Structures are given as C-alpha cells and as structure tokens.
Amino acid sequence: MKVLVVGGGGREHTIIWKLAQSDSVDTIYAAPGNAGTNLLATNVDIGAEDVTALAKFAVSEKVDLVVVGPEVPLCMGLADIVEEAGIPVFGPSAAAARIEGSKAFSKQLMKKYNVPTAAFGDFENFDEAVAYAQSLDADMWIKASGLAAGKGAVYAADPDEAEKILRGMMVEDEFGDSGHRVVIEENMKGEEASIFALCDGADYRLLVSSQDHKRVGEGDTGPNTGGMGAYAPAPIATPELIARVEKEVIEPTLAGMASEGCPYKGLLYAGIMVTEDGAPKVVEFNCRFGDPETQAVLPLLDGDLGEIMMACATGKLSTVDFVTSDGFAMCVVMASGGYPGSYKKGYPINGLFEAAAVEGAQVFHAGTKLENDDVLTSGGRVLGITGWGKDFFEARDRAYKAVESISFKDVFYRNDIGHRAAAHLKNK
Ligand code: AMP
Ligand code: GLY
Prior knowledge:
This protein is 32% helix and 28% strand. The chain starts with a strand and ends with a helix. It has 14 helices and 25 strands. The protein has helices spanning 10-20, 51-60, 71-75, 78-84, 94-101, 103-112, 126-136, 159-171, 239-259, 293-297, 305-313, 352-356, 392-404, 419-426; strands at 2-7, 27-32, 42-43, 65-68, 89-90, 120-123, 140-144, 153-156, 182-186, 190-200, 204-206, 211-212, 215-217, 221-224, 229-232, 265-275, 280-286, 301-302, 323-324, 328-336, 361-365, 368-371, 374-377, 381-389, 411-412. It has 428 residues and is α+β, with helices and mostly antiparallel strands. β10 (190-200) and β11 form a beta hairpin. The structure holds adenosine monophosphate and glycine. Adenosine monophosphate binds at residues 118, 141, 143, 152-153, 185, 187-188, 192, 214, 271, 283-284. Residues 150, 212, 226-227, 286, 290-291, 293 line the site of glycine.
C-alpha cells in the first residue's frame, strides 16, 4: 500500500523506518519530512499543519493510509477531513484529540470515569484560580489547558508563585488562547513512565513501556524540553504496574471516550506517575506517539507496522499479530546549543556514515534538512540516536558509540540517559 506520513521530526522518521520494513507497504510519502525520511520516502513540500493541502494530496495520489504524527493537525481535524474523503487514517478525530488538546477536557474525563490522576481545579476566571491556589497551601502545577508545544506545565513552589504564573497565563497572554483556561494540580511524587496503547475505536493493545528524560540537563536539571532521550522497556513498569494501568487507566478512559461520543483510534499515550505507594496516576494523555520515546519503542516492535496501523484505522486490531522483541533500546537526543531556548541553525552535520556503521544502532533525524548534498541542522532537537541490544547496558553503549562519532557546531546531549534504568537494574 501507499502511505502518507504527516510530520517531520524524529518520531516520524522512526515510523517511516519501521513502515519501510513492512511487507504491506511499498510507497511512503513524508510531509514535510526531513533529511532522514528522504532516504526512505518521498518528501512532499506540504507543512504538517496545512490540513487542506494534505488531504488533497492524499486523494490525488490515491494514498491507502494516512498516518498523522504530531498533535496539532489532529486537533485541527486532519483525521476527520481525510476520513470524509474515504481514506483510512491512523490518528484520532478532532473530538477525540481533545484528550491532549484540552487539559480541562482530559481532567474532567478522568474525574467522571474514575481514572486516577492528580487532584485539580479548572478555571477560566483569574480570581477564582488564585483563590484555589491559595487554598492548597502546598506546591502545585499550573497548566495552560490548550496546546503549548510541551511548555504549558509550570511548577509553582507556593501559592504566591502560583499567582504570578496564573497572571502570566490568564491576564498577560503568555500562551495566547491556550492559557485562558488553566488547570491547577497537586504535585505528585514518583517516577514517570510512558505507556502507549494502539487503539482501533473499540479494542486496544499496549506497546512496550518507555521512559523519557524531559529536563535539558544531566541529573534531571534545568528547563523542560520535548525530551532529551528515552529507553524501553522501563524497569519501573513492572508486569503488575502494567496490569494496573490497563485496568485502572486505559480501559476506563477508552470506555469513557466512547460514552462521550468520541471513540478513540490511533495511539493513546498515557504519561503515568508511579507514585511512592506503587499506584499509577495519570500525568497527561497525548493523542499521538511520544518523541523521543518512539525512537526506543518501535525498534523493539516485531510486526508489520503498516498492517498494524491499517488495522487500527479500520477497527480490526484483533486481526493482526505482533510481539515485543527481547532486549532493550535506548535513544540519545543530540540538540542545538541553546535549546530549549533560542539556537542557531544551518550547521553541517558530520559523521553520519560512521554512526550508521555502528552495530545495533540507528540514526533518526529530527531537525535536519538536505541542502545540495549536505545534511544541515534545522531545529532544536537535531538527531535521535538509538542503540539496541540484549540488555540495557549493551543498548546504551551502542547508542553512545554512535553519538560520539557525530559532530556539529554547538552540539550538546545528555551523558546520563537511562540513569534510572541503570540504577534499577544494578539494584536487582
Ligand atoms: P505535562 O505537560 O502535563 O505533560 O507536564 C510536563 C511534565 O511536568 C510531566 O512530564 C511531569 O514531569 C511534570 N508534571 C506535570 N504535572 C505534574 C504533577 N501534577 N505532579 C508532578 N509532576 C508533574
Ligand atoms: N516526549 C514527550 C512527548 O512526546 O510528549
């Protein structure tokens, strides 16, 4: 079949890499793609948010399946438009994508269907929000309800700090419309894991668990980023925990979405806090694969991703077979100096061939572009280098071996990706 993959980051390169290995897939388009997807797919010069042009392209090229990577086009209704044109889509409708696009919606959904999550209030009125923050007398998280490119959750150590953050969001428009409605949450303590469920509108199947590294600096310090590295499986996600997540989180959430009239199709990402007493609580839901978790999760998938995504799009998940391979995978993100703040672009990237030659390693492109025959940096997160192997330590060694062969001006990466897994595994 012919598949159009929407997006141009590391997640999309990884999806395309796996689709290219699928017997069911013979042609792949990437819109807009990057210098890495260009090797496996035909890059099409349409932006990931140009939903009308994307749907038109899918129809004119007689594409069999559209796979939507990022959340913004999903929240804009790309899946609805493509489906109306008669083409199956991997990704939720705009109504179902509210599970990520509106934190107020997802928190109210969790409350209504008894899905464990942090205690919260949701507000459109500044004075009421401040009064609630004052009543907590503790640290908390203030979140813009709408999409904010991963930057909309801010920690407040006390109610006074909370008031300043609320003023920025609700009065001073720091997040535009996204911050006019806010969610205020209790601060949960524990370790996080990312759980991905493939969904077909009725049925679901989990992929292997993973763990992201959100902070920019080693030792989990500094500002939040889109993610600086990931590994799979996450040792914190024991079989007992996974069983609880399925029963207490995934099943009631999918049943709740169906009862609300927006059955969920595509990938449901549950960000889980494993609290100190071992109970899972939802930190957030996303309506798409995580980035960079995908770069660690998909290399461990043993199955035909094209067939799996088509089965999700057409309500036939139970008809496909796939398993998780043994072993571990780990991805290290190489970023542009200054990220997640401002950074320069357009630097040549060296050593890609040497990295590709490392056994058990794969270079996934994110913010890269091809100019003449050179691969140049074009974003904050530039590359995700994944290593895999029989155990965590082999995966980590291979990832860093490939990382060390790549260079570009002002590059930085974290040297401690996987530190939690290493600690869990050493203590065994
Ligand atoms: P979000 O945008 O909701 O995913 O939040 C981004 C990150 O902030 C999460 O991955 C957590 O590390 C942290 N975070 C958000 N909400 C909470 C909370 N209620 N308690 C503890 N940490 C949180
Ligand atoms: N890595 C976090 C996310 O994709 O939202």
